[in-house]
Amino acid sequence: MKSIVAALAVVGLAAAAPVAAQAQPKAKAAAAYKAPRGPDGKHPDLNGVWQAMNSANWDIEPHAARAALQMRPGPYNPVPAKAVVALGAVGAVPGGLGIVEGGEIPYTADAKKQRDANREDYLNLDPEVKCYLPGVPRANYMHLPFQIFQSEKSMIVAYEYAGAVRNILFTDPGPAPVDSWMGQSVATWDGDTLVVKVTGMNDRTWFDRAGNFHSDQMTVEERWTPTGPGTIRYEATITDPATFTKPWKMSFNLYKRVGEDARLNQFKCVEFVEELMYGDLRKEPLK
Questions:
Q1: 52 in a structural domain
Q2: CA–CA separation, 147 vs 168, rounded Å?
Q3: Cα distance between residue 234 and residue 224, in whole Å
Q4: Domain span holding position 217
Q5: Sequential DSSP letters for 41-98
Q6: CA 2 to CA 41: how far, in whole Å?
Q7: DSSP label at 168?
């Protein structure tokens, strides 16, 4: 029996060797990719409409598919909350590998309890439900695309969701004068990687629909690296000592839209939630 196991191990190693050998050139090729130069003639051209293709907006940690974001106790197993049960499969959560490096967010004990409480009352607490601005980094992996406008001296990121906009500053103006939903973004170039430090964010945004959250002490360092003709490797290091025991990192790919798909539609959702937020103020509320 031992000899059989040993033989299988040798075969496995032999089979893996060509795969590893192939992977190394591919990794080197990605690292050596030279993106077309942008308007300044020096740095990569990031112009275009980009979109993530993952389920991170549902939950940035690895997760299995489940019946709904908000559940309630059932006679045998948890069932969808009453407010979403009629959605059926439309309200279900698709599974995902997650984008958190290492798999698990390093919450403090108290913060993890708050995360769990957020999940239990998701419908009332998730800012996305009320069309509040998504914040950074969440805006970059929502289900809608965004567009980068890069000129010789400036850069703007426009998001389809709620018409959110980020002005990427290349001259540091100092601390943000006030906390905001999208924060203040100050950028530098590290070779072909755009490095953006985001500060001055309020504590009202979440990372996803699964209750993962942060405090107003959070800072985010983004790294945007072109890795192919239509891909950007996005990385974000999250630092927030009030919520996490140590800095942690997320990473995923962004893909460039082409053809007639390379445009933003309008999704200004404030008017879509007027009934949810203010319907009870009608002289005769709807039943």
A1: yes
A2: 13
A3: 5
A4: 48-62+97-281
A5: SSSB---EEEEE-SSTTT-SS-B--BS-SSEE--SSS-EE-TTTGGGGGGG-B--B--
A6: 62
A7: E
Contacts of 270 (CB under 8 A, 6+ apart): 131, 162
75 is a domain residue: no
Pairing of the two strands 165-169 and 184-190: parallel
Residue 161 near residue 270, CB atoms below 8 Å = no
Paired tokens of 130: 């009320």
State percent of the chain over pLDDT 90: 86
Global confidence as pTM = 0.87
pLDDT at 275: 93
Q: Are 45 and 150 in contact (CB under 8 A)?
A: yes
Alpha helices in the chain (DSSP H): 2-32, 109-120, 122-125, 274-278
Dist. CA 165–CA 159, nearest whole Å:
6
pLDDT at residue 93, rounded to an integer = 96
pLDDT band at 32 (very low <50, low <70, confident <90, very high): confident
Give the CA-trace dihedral at 209, 213, 219, 225, to 10 degrees: -30
**How many domains in the chain?**
1
Instruction: State the first-to-last Cα distance of the chain, in angstroms, to the nearest integer.
Output: 72
* 42: in domain: no
Q: Would residue 23 count as lying in a domain?
A: no
